[in-house]
Amino acid sequence: MVEELITDRRRHQAEQIFALNDCARRAMDAGHFNAAVGAFRVIAEIGGLLRAPIKPPEAKS
Fold first, then answer.
1. pLDDT tens-digit readout, 2-54
2. Residue 42 half-sphere exposure, CB side, CA atoms within 13 Å?
3. DSSP characters for the chain?
4. Fewest 10 Å CB contacts: which of 11, 23, 28, 46?
5. Confidence at 1, pLDDT banded by 50, 70, 90
């Protein structure tokens, strides 16, 4: 069961990375470079290359 969860998690991560990469490419084609950078940043966070920023406890979004 644990192996199945790990496999599903990796597949889910791969799907998200693929979708974000497509989003970044479209944003760049449209000249929306801030959106493209944001998508690439999330890809890096998913891949463990970059830590997500830690929000202070009082910050509400």
1. 676 677 888 888 999 999 999 999 999 999 999 999 999 999 988 888 776 67
2. 16
3. -HHHHHHHHHHHHHHHHHHHHHHHHHHHHTT-HHHHHHHHHHHHHHTTSSPPPPPPTT---
4. 11
5. low
Report the pLDDT value the prediction gives residue 39, as an integer from 0 to 100: 96
At which residue do the structure tokens 């966070």 appear? 45
Q: Are 27 and 33 in contact (CB under 8 A)?
A: yes
Angle (CA) 19 6 48, round 5°: 55
What are the tokens at 17? 């990375």
In angstroms, how far is CA 9 from the centroid of its own chain? 14
